[in-house]
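ok trying again, last paste got cut off:
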Amino acid sequence: MRAAEQSVRLERISQERFIQAPIDAVYDYVTQPDRWHEWHPTSLGADTGTTGPLHAGARFTEMIDLLGVRVPMSYRVQIARRPDEFKTVFTSLAVDGSIHYFLQAFRDGTLFKRVLTYETELQLASLHERMIELSAIALDRLKQRMENSHSV
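nice, full thing came through this time. structure:
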């Protein structure tokens, strides 16, 4: 029983980027899960049943690619406080956790922080390192996408 208790660990990945785009524009974009596939490499697509930013209490599904395996995810939005905070909790057969965004107007842009907290029973030595790498790629893509769409 002791080994089983130790097999599930809560992991946390926190990364941030300065995005040269208005805070409202960044918030409105990142709180549309049906657009996550445009910038996050693991997202294969989400179904929110609506358009635009999601509100607290909203539920949606997403299909992700977790190290080559398609995993259906179920989400519920816990916090949707425009323009500075958004949090959704997720569950699946493979991994459970939350995605928490913090946004802050800074100079002529936005400080965007993404905190992924997750736990899994999967015993994959490379999973956490790969999740850190994918998160960095996602934030770099988000930064590029937002800055290119808001350049003069």
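cool. The chain has one domain: 2-149. Residues 50 and 67 are 29 Å apart (CA to CA).
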